[in-house]
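Q: Two folds, back to back.
A: First:
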Amino acid sequence: MTQALHVGVHAGVADLAIGLRSGQFSAEELARALLNRISASPLNAFLDLRPEVTLAQARLADARIARGEARALEGVPIAHKDVLVTRDWISTAGSRMLTDYRSPFDATVVDRLSQAGMVGLGKLNCDEFAMGSTNENSAFGAVRNPWDLNAVPGGSSGGSAAAVAAGLTPAATGTDTGGSIRQPAAFCGITGIKPTYGRASRYGLIAYASSLDQAGPMARSAKDCALLLSAMCGFDPMDATSLDLAQEDYSAGLDQPFAPNAVSPSRPLAGLRIGLPDEFFGAGVAGEVSAAVRTALDTLEALGARCVRVQLPNTELAIPAYYVIAPAEASSNLSRFDGVRYGHRTANPSDLRDLYRRSRAEGFGAEVKRRILVGAYVLSHGYYDAYYLRAQKVRRLVANDFDRAFEQCDLIAGPVAPTVAWNLGAHQSDPLADYLADIFTLPASLAGLPGLSMPVGFGRGDGSGSDSSSASGSKSDPSPRPVGMQLIGPALREARLLRVAHQFQQVTDWHLRRPPEPRSVTTG
């Protein structure tokens, strides 16, 4: 491996695009090097690789570059979360129900990134049907966190986050229903953004909760995410919830000061008001997480921002509201998997009822079954008003909280999760512990607002997901695990979030930190 290629393997999207155009290495060389890393990785981040497909796409990219016809992201590799359907790779949604399923078309998000010139590496592991916060619910085994192989990577986009953090791919797609881009990005020390609901097409996204699901990019930096988001967003007539808005270049204003008349280059965020919700900094947040976020806020203030207190009084109600609404929609969406049209079909059913019952029992995992049962219950006659309708009213209250808060600030900041990543299996007997870990990401999802996670430090935790601020530092302590800070903006203000994160990353290096190479991983 040449020195230039070795550097390229560990580079981000923006730098790779430059390296490919300048001929420092070819798209085929880069793809081969990453496929070698993936094959040797112990993380279980990938579910399907088709080297012949990847290398064919890379050769086409090299030919376009040679002809001077390179598109915006020509030759840059990307991998896709397995809830986005693809023609060239299987699309399982992490479930036995869809083992070996091949879609006849690409999801719009996948197609748009391909049209921008990106080279597909394969499909990434995820919680089954995107239901989970740890990536332990995949039918094909848990994904491991590259910073500590004993830790979860977060979910449901854990395969995406782990692969980017470990240098197996410079970029990945994720989906966020209740925090499934932001939380794994935080746990793995990368940057990820959930755009406003409707910004990115849901066509070809295997549905979990249709009023909440939203695709978004995951990469090293805000700059890389801006390039990816620019390519993947835009109106799609195939998606009834797609916003009819022109495509936006999110990378164009990254280096511009927040206030048009700013006079100090060292204070590019002068005029920015950052709201700090009291509810995001309470007793339930681990001391090391709170300290890392507070230090990051100090940095943003040094760049000219001003922090103000705001209130989001219905934050705690977001958890029960979400875990009524999302399972209700899931129970409806997953009813299509009945063993008749496509998906897993049980052997030798005695009758139609037996076909339905055994196909679904064999195809779905425990967490999916749990949510289907909850959803069917809250939608049933006699309980709809008491649970589902009331949860929708709470959803409106949560959105109203944000409306009031944004009258006092330009964006909201706080922890992504109350703790750093916990150990694999730590919450296995208590699924509610996973649900509670979503408390800071759920409100923005319920309100349909954009949210971004960026790395701001490290903590050691105690492996259980509890407050570990008194960790002893002994040899038995877990390895350092990343801490993420969340930025939430008003609807359609993704560019604002990306600009603030980019300015932060210009003066810090948390997004440049790399986990140690596992002993079984080689660089080709």
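A: Second:
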Amino acid sequence: MMTRSRFFPAGLAAVVFLLAAFPAGALLAQESPFVPEKLARELRNEISGDRAYNYVRRLTPYHRIMGSEAYVQAAEMLAGLAREYGFENVRVVRQKFDGGISWDPRSARLWLLDPEEEKLCDFAEVPVSLAVFSRSARAEAELVDIGGGASPRDFSGIDVAGKIVLTTAAPALAVRTAVWERGALGVISCASVHPDARFDTPDQIAYIKVPASCPPGKAAPWAFMISARRHGALQDLLRKAKARGTPVRVRAEIEAEVREPGEQAYLMAEIPGSEIHDQDIVLVAHLDEESTSANDNGSGCASILEIGRAVNALIKDGRIARPKRDIVFWWPNEHTSEYQLLREEPEARRSWLAAVNQDMVGARQGMGSRIQHIIRTPHSLPSYLSDVVESVAEYVILGNTSFLAADEAGTPQPYGKPILASYGSRERYGAMVIPHSGASDQEVFVEGVVGVPCVALINNPDVYIHSSDDDLPNIDPTQLERNAFVTAATALFLANAGDPDVPMTAGEIYGRGVARLGAELRTALAHVREDKAGAPERSFREARNLLERAGERETAAVRSALVFASAGGANAAYAEGLAVRIGERAAGFVRDLEAAFPEVAGRVRKAGPAGGLTPVEKELASRKPVNAGTLDEYFGRRGWSVGYPGLHSIMAKECYCFVDGKRTGLDIFRAVQAEALSAGAYYYGTVTPEAVLGLLDEAVKKGVLKLR
């Protein structure tokens, strides 16, 4: 029997029951409460995937390696367009590049000399053919094949001193094993970031680096990158030359400038709000990558530029009002610009209300079966933002997917609410909302010590990323337009949201949260039924922990909507009531779990709270970590990329994010274990108390954390 609280209006209980019974989005097909139809129409009419495609076209010639002159030139080019389109406070800002170098390649060519002259590589034609950070060199030498080049066995019977090596190894590895350890002059590699590139894309040339720093007394590193097909041809040539008893000779010519200490930069621009200037909505897309790099991340850079152009045009024409909050557009050096800014200006984060990251949003999805991922915030930072962007994304997904029943109902086909570029495809919008994922700029914002909710749009898989194949033919103006619509609609809602929007926002979070709790219950029941932990009592404790942590997460998610509420008002009280109610529902699901396995639940209760703790868990329970030092000290000691043996990198970072001075090490372990269990072992792996204890101990030794 359902009970009602005074914050739970009559009739809402039945709606919530239905929301729990159906997948999120199934009841509000082709609608989103965050996108009024008039605004949707204006955005569909103004945002242009064709314009965005042309911005990508203008970016592709720049070999915009982080810290390079070409990067700054690309930023200045975009800055000129931003000013033309009415952005304000447009500026390219130079930054310290902690640990980085500024590398500017001028020219590079690789020649085959014997048995006949042939040009093998030319930086002016294919910039990725020169491995990033390669130093100036001029060498003529014999070519020798070292195969994998990783172990002493690969060098057995081969003298590489004074020669140039051909390898399948990553150039950084070959530089170490062949050049620095055995005296080779340089490297020619066909390594790839894609395991099946040799078979699927044999003419692809990878964008890969040699070491940025060189140990004292060692030769300056350099490497040329070639395709798998070219590598096979050179191997054949070496076999024939060996049979004849003649060498194969090559010549390398490289001119490159290295400046240390390095310098990086970012481009920033704004659409000023009409009222609120300390709650910025940040749209971010990293600018650095290799020449071409059309999808990663020319597409994201172009998308936020087009969003700003379109919003400015709509404001100028009086079709929409100026947003209340400032919208900030940021084209940074991926990860490092944001971390550097936070180290230098730690208070900057306090003016960021929320952020949306666009990284790879232009994929022609029919090429490589690519899917657009809409990435939620992590469990350490439950937020209204995840449900806002999920709702808007569903609006575009359902409006740009064909359904037989919809056709029979008379809904326009193939798509009910089409978003199609003039020169783009008519493919459906293949997108899905997924749990938190890293590897892009959203990681910075959701750091526990930063605490700014950020969602991201990123496509996966991508067999073209970081290679010569990431070019304009793989970009679809239609998908650029759709992803820009999702981001623009989300940003405009956030930029205008206020107290009147709180009941709708909190109700949406509540409804979707109940559906998520139902999914967690299914996972919990299966975890015990299948004894996933290998001991019934342990499986039950983990399943119950999953539901308890889910209740905390969903309660916090509903309360996050209070950021838009007037303190002490009726709407704030309503949202708070929903937060209490969803916590009660989570507690009810815990009781459902206990009812399903009464014998096991009884044994766990009889053992008591500490009866099931292992020695490692007891050790975790005795510790209460807190963050140490300023942001500069924190990030300087920890680094932006973290990991620990036995932990998924995202779960390792979540261990840091859950540190708040209140949680014990055991609380942190349980939170991260529940997050991993929620998504599934295939997604985040498994979390053990030993790994969490080891990470926390290491962090204390580094001075990143300290113990109360």
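Q: And?
A: The two ends are 45 Å apart (CA to CA).
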